[in-house]
Amino acid sequence: MVGAGRINAAAVLLVAVVAGAVAAEDAGGFITWDDLTIPSAVAAPRGVWDGAAAGGHGGVKAARARDLDTIVVSQDGTGHARTVQGAVDLVPAGNRRRVKILVRPGVYREKVTVPITKPFVSLIGMGTGRTVITWNSRASDLDPSGHPVGTFYSASVAVEADYFCASHITFENSAPAAPPGAVGQQAVALRLSGDKTMLYRCRILGTQDTLFDNIGRHYLYDCDIQGSIDFIFGNARSLYQGCTLHAVATSYGAIAASQRSSPAEDSGFSFVGCRLTGSGMLYLGRAWGRYARVVYSYCDLSGIVVPQGWSDWGDRSRTKTVLFGEYSCKGPGASTRQRVPWSRSLTYEEARPFLGRSFINGEQWLRL
């Protein structure tokens, strides 16, 4: 079950995100394929740290940090920083140009935050199986003041900045798997709280509440997302294209929990050309918000989908206001014969607004 305590934290952050989005818009930024790729001469191009030539000590003076186009993270000390957070700290506050953080192979056991003051950051790994950022916080863990951190702050990696990109990297929360109905066991691998974010060929691994797709417009392309209960949740407007959704549920679970609580909120999750694999019996979506919106189109759904397909979160009144839809899906789990009567088998015209990047206003910030 998704913890309600994170809602207040999300609302507080929303004010800051709006302010940061204005600054990002002023920069006139677009996300391109180049923002997701390793520089061709990363060993020693202009503005890139050559740790070996510098004696392998690692680190860089703060005065030089603002001149860097690429920041290298290496655990052996031959980069700018030994930790991912150390590299993020080198990005100047108020940054208005693309800065790539290249994370060399390794398992980085740390919590990482990309603050709202640092937009236009790319986090580029050397392969999802080779570059891993992992931590093990759960919602019930205590902070230094003795209070539970809550779901919001359990994230191994939290992105609060706009125009963030990530590619070829794994985000993981390695906390023990939570059984259904457990309290305080939510464990977020990645929280996305900025606007105009793209992830390409990333893995996001956890069990309950793996990906907190909090607020903003997000594009996840060719990614692997693993979990058991509400493993994609939040109030963002996000397009998942060509992704693998892998369930590790031991009994019942759910893929998506949309928090949309008003018809005025232009949020929801669209899954296009995705593939569902794994174990357990999965709901396609649950109505966390009264106006929850989740659509699956052209997806390959395995037989682990419960025949009813969807959950009203125990509130029958939500069946009148949610939009839970399916269009042209295939596989053993795609049969709609036993679906709840308040879900919808969409026509092409009904599904079309959810099928492409226009769902996330991609023409305004994607140039791919």
TrEMBL record:
This is Pectinesterase. It is an enzyme of class 3 (hydrolase). It comes from the Eukaryota. Pathway: Glycan metabolism; pectin degradation; 2-dehydro-3-deoxy-D-gluconate from pectin: step 1/5. InterPro entries: Pectin_lyas_fold, Pectin_lyase_fold/virulence, Pectinesterase_Asp_AS, Pectinesterase_cat. It is found in: Secreted, Cell wall. Belongs to the pectinesterase family. It catalyses: [(1->4)-alpha-D-galacturonosyl methyl ester](n) + n H2O = [(1->4)-alpha-D-galacturonosyl](n) + n methanol + n H(+). Its EC number is 3.1.1.11. Keywords: Aspartyl esterase, Cell wall, Hydrolase, Secreted, Signal. It comes from Paspalum notatum var. saurae. GO terms for molecular function: pectinesterase activity. Residues 71-362 form the Pectinesterase catalytic domain. The active site is at D230. Its main location: secreted. SUPFAM superfamilies: Pectin lyase-like (SSF51126). Residues 1-23 form the signal peptide. One of its GO terms (biological process) is cell wall modification.
